[in-house]
UniProtKB/TrEMBL annotation:
Domain (Transposase DDE): residue spans on this chain: 2-89
Pfam families referenced in this protein's UniProt entry, alphabetically: DDE_Tnp_1_2
Protein name: Transposase DDE domain-containing protein
Keywords: Membrane, Transmembrane, Transmembrane helix
InterPro entries: Tnp_DDE_dom
Source species of the chain: Acetobacterium wieringae
Transmembrane feature ranges: 100-119
Keyword Transmembrane helix carried by entry: yes
Lineage: Bacteria, Bacillati, Bacillota, Clostridia, Eubacteriales
Length: 123
């Protein structure tokens, strides 16, 4: 997946040399007749690309990735790495908290069931 701005002859030659397939329109004129197989591949590639672009949008809105205004290459790389670190920590923390609450609620329900049958908790 690549933006159309990166689809130039030099980059396409580099990708072809390494056996990497790139999705998107070919350089030059569009063909008059396009087979249904090519259309299906393009549609699948566009769907995958939309999912990736959507995650970039979330990263910019939710995590402030669009606010990175560094000028030096090293500081830009550091800022990007830190943003992805924060994203991964947030994702894992949400998963951990959801699992914690699920287990906590199950435990509370079990305690209430035991208390409802007249059993006393050991202290």
């Amino acid at each position: 997946m690549a933006d159309s701005i990166f689809r130039n002859r030099e980059n396409l030659a580099w990708l072809k040399l390494r056996g990497i397939r790139i999705s998107g329109p070919k350089l030059g004129r569009k063909p008059k007749v396009v087979s249904s197989e090519v259309k299906q591949v393009e549609r699948a590639d566009n769907g995958e690309r939309n999912a990736i672009e959507g995650s970039y949008g979330v990263t910019k809105r939710k995590y402030g990735f669009g606010l990175v205004r560094t000028k030096l290459e090293n500081t830009t790389k550091s800022a990007i790495i830190l943003q992805f670190l924060v994203m991964n920590l947030d994702r894992r923390m949400r998963f951990f908290l959801s699992q914690f609450w699920i287990r906590f609620i199950d435990l509370m329900q079990a305690v209430n069931l035991v208390a409802g049958y007249g059993f006393q908790s050991v202290q």
